[in-house]
C-alpha cells in the first residue's frame, strides 16, 4: 500500500536482509536504487520516512551480496543533497549518486556534484519535494554537458503524455520502478508507452514490485510486464532494491525476496547477470568486476 500522509512515520526496512535464494549473484552486482535518509525533512513532503543511515545501507549491501550501490536523492530532502554526497565521499569506489537540483545552479556547483560521484539527475513528477518536468530541455542540456543521464519517477497513467517529450531527448533516460505501470495498466496505453520508449533506447529499472503489485507478496502479477521489458531491451534493464522502501504501508519486503523475483522475470542466467552487473556497470560508471 502506498501512502500519502506525512503525519505517519514509515516503518523501518526488514532488519535481516539476505541474498537471493534461487540463483547466485554475479560478481560486481549493483543495486541501482536506494536512499539514505536523515531528519531534515522539507515541509511539502508527501510522506515521512524512517531515518536510514549510510552505515545501514552499506550493511544491507554486504548482507545481500551486492558489490555496488546507487543512491537516489530522496524527495523529503528536496534539493539538499548533502547527506547523499557525504555518503558518496565515504565510499567513492562502491557508490554512485543521482541528484535532485534546481536547473539554474552555477557551473561550479554542477562540477562539484560530478566530482562527488553524481552521475545523473532525477525528475520527480509524483511526490512533494521533487523537481518536475517543466524544465526538461534545461536538464537535458545539463546532462549532455556533464555526461549524465535523466531519471524519471512518474506514475504509469502519466506516461502516454510524457512519452513524446522523452522520446526526443538526446541524453540517456531511465524510468524508476517499471514506470509505476501497475498490472492493470500493463496491457493498456501506459504499458505500451513504456515498452515503446524502452524499445527506442530508454533504460528501465526492474524494481518496485511491492509498490505496483495488486496482489501483494510474492508479487506474481508483476512478472508478465517485467518480462516484457526485459525481452524488449535486455541490455538496458537494471535492478534496484528501493531500500528502505519509503512511503509504503504493506509488509516490508526482504531484499532477498526482491532479488528472487528476477528468477521469474529474467529466467535466462546470462541476461539476468547482465541486468544485475554488466548493464548497471555501464550506465553508472562502475568498473567491470574483473577490473574492480
Task: Write up this protein.
α5 links the parallel β5 (149-153) and β6. α5 (159-167) runs parallel beside α7 and α7 packs parallel to α9 (223-232). This protein is 36% helix and 13% strand. The longest helix has 16 residues, at 269-284. The model has no long low-confidence stretch (mean pLDDT 94). The chain has helices at residues 54-64, 82-90, 107-115, 136-146, 159-167, 183-186, 189-199, 209-212, 223-232, 255-265, 269-284, and strands spanning 30-34, 68-72, 95-99, 118-124, 149-153, 173-175, 203-206, 237-239. The chain is built from eleven helices and eight strands. The protein has a single domain, classed as TIM Barrel, CATH 3.20.20.140.
Please provide the count of β strands.
8
Radius of gyration, in angstroms, nearest whole number? 17 Å
Q: In the CATH hierarchy, what is the architecture at level 2?
A: Alpha-Beta Barrel
Structural class: alpha/beta
Q: What gap, in angstroms, lies between the N and C termini?
A: 39 Å
What is the 3D shape? globular
Total helices: the number is 11
Order of helices and strands: EHEHEHEHEHEHHEHHEHH
- The CATH H-level superfamily is Metal-dependent hydrolases
User: What percentage of residues falls in helices of 4 or more residues?
Assistant: 25-40%
Poorly predicted runs: none
Output the CATH topology: TIM Barrel
Biggest pleated-sheet summary = 8 strands, parallel
Amino acid at each position: 500500500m502506498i501512502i500519502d500522509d506525512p503525519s505517519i512515520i514509515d516503518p523501518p526496512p526488514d532488519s535481516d536482509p539476505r541474498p537471493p535464494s534461487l540463483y547466485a549473484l554475479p560478481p560486481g552486482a549493483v543495486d541501482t536504487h536506494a536512499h539514505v535518509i536523515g531528519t531534515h525533512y522539507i515541509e511539502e513532503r508527501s510522506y515521512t520516512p524512517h531515518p536510514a543511515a549510510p552505515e545501514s545501507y552499506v550493511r544491507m549491501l554486504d548482507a545481500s551480496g551486492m558489490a555496488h550501490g546507487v543512491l537516489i536523492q530522496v524527495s523529503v530532502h528536496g534539493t539538499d543533497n548533502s547527506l547523499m554526497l557525504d555518503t558518496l565521499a565515504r565510499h567513492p569506489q562502491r557508490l554512485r549518486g543521482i541528484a535532485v537540483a534546481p536547473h539554474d545552479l552555477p557551473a561550479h556547483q554542477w562540477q562539484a556534484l560530478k566530482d562527488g560521484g553524481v552521475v545523473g539527475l532525477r525528475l520527480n513528477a509524483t511526490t512533494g519535494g521533487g523537481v518536475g518536468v517543466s524544465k526538461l530541455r534545461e536538464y537535458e542540456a545539463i546532462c549532455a554537458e556533464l555526461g549524465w543521464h535523466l531519471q524519471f519517477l512518474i506514475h504509469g497513467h502519466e506516461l502516454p503524455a510524457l512519452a513524446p517529450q522523452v522520446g526526443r531527448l538526446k541524453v540517456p533516460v531511465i524510468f524508476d520502478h517499471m514506470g509505476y505501470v501497475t498490472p492493470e495498466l500493463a496491457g493498456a496505453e501506459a504499458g505500451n508507452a513504456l515498452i515503446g520508449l524502452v524499445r527506442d533506447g530508454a533504460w528501465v529499472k526492474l524494481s518496485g514490485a511491492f509498490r505496483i503489485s495488486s496482489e501483494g507478496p510474492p508479487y506474481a502479477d508483476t512478472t508478465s510486464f517485467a518480462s516484457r521489458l526485459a525481452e524488449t531491451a535486455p541490455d538496458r534493464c537494471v535492478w534496484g532494491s528501493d531500500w528502505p522502501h519509503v512511503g509504503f504501508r504493506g509488509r516490508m519486503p526482504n531484499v532477498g525476496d526482491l532479488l528472487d523475483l528476477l528468477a521469474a522475470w529474467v529466467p535466462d542466467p546470462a541476461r539476468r547477470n547482465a541486468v544485475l552487473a554488466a548493464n548497471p556497470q555501464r550506465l553508472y560508471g562502475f568498473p567491470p568486476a574483473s577490473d574492480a
